[in-house]
Amino acid sequence: MTNGNLLPVVMSINCQTGWFDGETDEFDHREFESFAEQFLRKENGGTVGIFAATRNSYSGFNDALAKGFIDSVFPGFLQDVPNNSGANNRLGPILNHGKLP
């Protein structure tokens, strides 16, 4: 993938794709860069930012988080969750909205 200046924000909502400290983790030494690290460091492409789990995560919670991210960018996606701020295009508000119950 070569995307020049059009770098996306990646939401990798699943287990361990952001395990960034494998080289120094005293419990589970991993001698490789995680998916998130590889994406961030890719020359002539990659991503400007990434949301990724550093350890195990659980599917139901992952689903809720991903749906919250989508609802933050596209208000009304979740019918039962109020979104009074309108569409967000900043990462902080998107992350906060994704964590709503």
From TrEMBL:
<protein>
    <recommendedName>
        <fullName>Gingipain domain-containing protein</fullName>
    </recommendedName>
</protein>
<dbReference type="GO" id="GO:0006508">
    <property type="term" value="P:proteolysis"/>
</dbReference>
<dbReference type="InterPro" id="IPR001769">
    <property type="entry name" value="Gingipain"/>
</dbReference>
<dbReference type="InterPro" id="IPR029030">
    <property type="entry name" value="Caspase-like_dom_sf"/>
</dbReference>
<dbReference type="Pfam" id="PF01364">
    <property type="entry name" value="Peptidase_C25"/>
</dbReference>
<feature type="domain" description="Gingipain">
    <location>
        <begin position="1"/>
        <end position="99"/>
    </location>
</feature>
<dbReference type="GO" id="GO:0008234">
    <property type="term" value="F:cysteine-type peptidase activity"/>
</dbReference>
